[in-house]
Amino acid sequence: MEETRWDEAIASFVSLNLAGHIVNCNQTFADFVKYTKVELNGAHIEHVLNNAGRFFFHSLVYPKLRAVGQVEDIYITLETKESQLKDCLFSAKLFNEHDQAVIDCIIFPVSRQIKYEKELKEINKRLEEVLKEKEALHTTLIEKQQQLLTLNKELKRYATRDWLTKLYNRRVFLDRLEQAIHRFNRTGESFSLMLLDIDYFKRVNDQYGHSVGDDVLIHLAHTMVYHQDLSFTSARFGGEEFVVLMPDLTEKAATEAAELLRAHVEKDQFFTVPITISIGVSTFTSSDDSDTLILKADKAMYKAKQSGRNKVVHYNQISHDTQ
Q1: What are the coiled-coil residue ranges (predicted)?
Q2: Rounded CA gap, 66 and 20, in Å?
Q3: Catalytic site residues?
Q4: What are the extents of the domains in the chain?
């Protein structure tokens, strides 16, 4: 059963020896390159690579595998039995199995939409047509590969950031929050959270348009970063809601930090249209978890809006008022 699942997996799996010969592959890979598993067994991986892919394997993949033991998210081009070129995302890791070096590879097909892939294909074509330019083209190829690696790093950065405001996204914030909770359980270090929302933001969009609304969100994000401690984690939580994790701040200090931000936003003359914000603050206790802490801040923010907006309310103020 496990062998069948591996053979029919959605991703292509290939195992190579250190010389680059295929020692095993799943049926998904065989179907992808239009060979049978019998034809692939013992064949060199370069058998299914185009010229640029072979050159790239020799210049980057093999050296990196030998140096650090793995490569991740590398774009390569496979050539099928029918001479069809297929762009793929390639990752591999070097293992020692029974004193034998084995390179396990995972291959995913990707669409042809990356600018640098097209440039690499053009370079490959020139390599085949003008052999005398090989040395110069080799340099260019390495440069383009470095650009591609840089692009991959940039794409990973985008995976952690909100596309509009460039603040951290919700996933990163929740990860940081869990880290703060673990630190609290280990050391007792207090921390707080503020949840803020733009007052009457729908009116901004309705009256001035979504482009102006986007400008307001971007400028608010800049204001948050500029006027807050470097240890804070600011993130866009969704829509016009933002959240800030404030390590090592108790109720009083956290409320003061939130009030400082509220005042800066109210007085800021650089917003496209004047805005105010309502902020709810909560401070972590031993009876809390991530959900209850966020819920407390949300209730405090709702109380701030009920009280006339453009205010800061700590959750403890609500609990004291109801006692």
Answers
A1: 113-161
A2: 12
A3: 240
A4: 2-158, 170-322
Residue 293 and residue 304: Cα distance in Å, rounded? 17
C-beta of residue 315 within 8 angstroms of C-beta of residue 284: no
CATH fold for the domain made of 2-158: Beta-Lactamase (3.30.450)
Residue 274: which residues within 8 A CB-CB, separation 6 or more? Answer: none
Exposed (0-12), middle (13-18) or buried (19+): which is 310, by Cβ within 10 Å?
A: middle
The HSE-up count of residue 66 (CA atoms within 13 Å, CB side) is 10
Tokens of 81: 């039995």
Structure tokens at 296: 């407390």
What confidence tens digit (pLDDT) does each residue in 115-164 have? 555 666 777 777 777 666 666 666 776 776 777 676 666 656 667 889 89
Query: Which of these, 217, 227, 228, lies nearest to 277 by C-alpha position?
Result: 217
Span 77-97, pLDDT tens digits? 899 999 999 888 889 999 887
Q: Which of 248, 259, 265, 272 is nearest to 300 (CA)?
A: 259
201 Cβ partners below 8 Å, 6+ apart? 213, 216, 239, 240, 275
Distances (CA, A) of 121 to 107, 175, 283: 19, 39, 55
In sequence order, the β-bridge partners of residue 189 are none
Helix (H, G, I), strand (E, B) or coil at 263: helix
CB 162 within 8 A of CB 168: yes
pTM of the entire structure?
A: 0.54
Q: How far does CA 103 lie from the centroid of its chain?
A: 26
